């Protein structure tokens, strides 16, 4: 079994990280654990809020969720987060498709190296943009949560919202998409190994052996 080229390893690593980041960004979009609220008066009750619904978990009843009735009634950070997370999911899918068609391990379009390189760069750039679109909303919601938690104008007896698990998933998703897109761009800009050029020389030699009459014509000229 022949060893993989560093270029191919970078492509596979970038595609794998990008795929993982895209899956995490989709989970972040739909999970209702963006913010958690634990009530001191009733420790058996826990409230969570996401982009699409609010949930309450009680020890006796279990978890009950309710979708938000109005988009315009949501806080600004949640409205913008919805749009950006949808944008991140869409860009991530497009980036994965473009980068997948540009991978060296895919034989499709192998003779058109310029096109495959362009697709790989396009995919890496789109995935990088998807990572930024995922990091912005989770960081904004986290920033607002911290400000509200330390707001001195709110009485201490009032419960405070804290970070939910979905925010950490969103950070991981954004970093994986950024790292994966960067690896794909680096791999696209790197040169192919000498082994690859030898492969084309061998193919050209074989072609000459199969068409000796053409070679003789070139020699006469």
UniProtKB/TrEMBL annotation:
Segments traversing the membrane: 83-106, 118-142, 168-188
Superkingdom field: Eukaryota
Keywords assigned by UniProt, alphabetized: Cell junction, Cell membrane, Membrane, Tight junction, Transmembrane, Transmembrane helix
GO function term, MF aspect, one: structural molecule activity
Pfam families for the chain: PMP22_Claudin (PF00822)
Main localization (coarse): other
Cellular localisation: Cell junction, Tight junction; Cell membrane
Signal peptide: none
Membrane topology: Multi-pass membrane protein
Keyword set includes Endoplasmic reticulum: no
A cellular component annotation (GO) from this entry: plasma membrane
Function, as annotated: Claudins function as major constituents of the tight junction complexes that regulate the permeability of epithelia.
Family: Belongs to the claudin family.
Protein name: Claudin
Organism: Canis lupus familiaris
Annotated gene: LOC482919
